[in-house]
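COURSE: Structural Biology Practicum
ASSIGNMENT: Worksheet 4, Part C
STUDENT ID: 0417
INSTRUCTIONS: Below are two proteins. For each, the amino acid sequence is given first, followed by its structure token string. Answer the questions at the end about the second protein only.

PROTEIN I
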Amino acid sequence: MTSKRYLPLLLLLCSLFVIVNKPASALRSSDFYLQDGDWYDDWGINRNNFEGPNGYLPNLAFETLGENRDLAYDIGVWFQNNYQIETDRAEAILKYVQTWTEYGYDSDNVIMEDVPQEEWAWNADEMANAFNETTGARAIGDCEDLAFLCGTIYIGAGFDAAIVDATDHAALLIWLPEFSNANHYWDLPNDDRDAGWIWVEATGNSNPLGWTPPDFEDGGWTAYSIGSLEFVAEPEPSQSPSIDLEVLITIVAIALSVIGALLKLKRAR
């Protein structure tokens, strides 16, 4: 590969260096306290439990949005200013997150008072502050950590986004109906628009934008809007076009008739 092919990536990394390495603000929650066996942050959000009014899904997203926006949001603003075409911008953001994060289990990476945490969630700014393009350090997190990071960056970049709460998994949806390579375009019931939400799966380095994992193609999960939108949706799976059985039988019969006629014509010759 020639050096010219590396130039766009080099320019991207150099520009984002200024954003990622600026001083962290007070928006990164650091005051954790133990209550009834679970750890809470200074917003009162339970970092060990995703459920309930104080659970981290989707509440943790709002620590880094609106008037609380900071590093992760600013990364998204950079992408909006430097990628004019939305589809290119969306793909570049996912690639950036995949480059500077690494999937890891909470119990291996989060220790509170010498106790490994079986379940833990980091907010987007905590994840953004954990990677460093100068040293090459990558932020380590699991599915919900990556979903929150992606969510704030995409909103900062001008996209509508929703956090996905699925069985044993969390991910992100963004509204991008013009993207041509998704395997599913989701229609969220409480959103006024038709199918056009696509899946963002950052848990693997090679997962492409718009790829809904097979385990979640049948719906059965909940999408929580974040940012300026307000809805909670439980989508049904997108239906592939089906062919009526009678129509299929007719098509087969016609095809067989044509084949029979061609064979007779061949023998006649």
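PROTEIN II
(use this one for the questions)
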Amino acid sequence: MFLRVDKLQIELPAPKKQDPNAAAALQELLGGKYGEMSTLGNYLFQSFNFRSKSKLRPFYSLVAAITAEEIGHVELVSNGVAMLANGPDKPDGDAGDGGDISGAPYEAMKDVRLAGAFFSHAGGAVPVNSNAMSWNADMVTTTGNVIVDLLHNFHLECGARLHKLRVYETLSDPTGREICGYLLVRGSVHAHAYALALKKLTGVELEKFLPTPNIPLGKIPECQKYLESGSHRRLYTFSPSDYQELAGIWGGDGETVLPDDPPGELEVVEGAPDGGKIHNLTGVPSAFTPDYAPEEMFEIASKLYKRSR
């Protein structure tokens, strides 16, 4: 089963301006071939289908714990997409009825890259890539063969890091760049972990056979605080007590496999990161989000909230 915490894995800076095209670029990290929906889908079903769990517990625990983190990555990117598409909050923007809607207040939206993101989803995120092509189950690999699945996962993390770097290079807004910086660090952890697992199973020194990904995190400003805090050497269990066995693969000896990985002890952390608040997107009555003239809805919600206290 899964627990849910009402936080993002990190604190995201507010966007400087509304930028639907930047939101479209960020969609690649959600619904692209190497996006978070793909990493989640692969690890989720591999963990469900894992054979001989009790005998291969460290490898099962590794995939299961990373699965839980990937759910949070989907949440993080989705929030970033919505924040960029909507722009900075407007004080009392969710009050009233939005005024006169007959003068084409969203005329510019017809020319944005993913107009459907506004027309159908009010600027929200859905599992599509940067060109609105739907993510689909064909991107999930779960063979039942532990080595094949782990090798596929390593490839997936390497491809994901490459795509994150390319998206990062297209963005200037701090919201999108913060997401890319964090995910580049965490993707390094996951690629490193799968490489170590393969090394322990096969004895093959993967860093000599596949010297990739060669992405120097030390040169990316948004990665620095996560490197300084040790996030690049930390795997979370995302559970209060389970999946501790992954320490047999990831833990203690400062081992490195990937080029340009900053040094440090490998650490397994029980539970989840401290996280940061979820951005409170202001409603837009003229776009009927959450509704046109929503004061009655707010009043009902306020009464229900007081009753719950």
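ANSWER KEY EXCERPT:
Q1: The longest strand covers residues 234-236.
Q2: The two ends are 27 Å apart (CA to CA).
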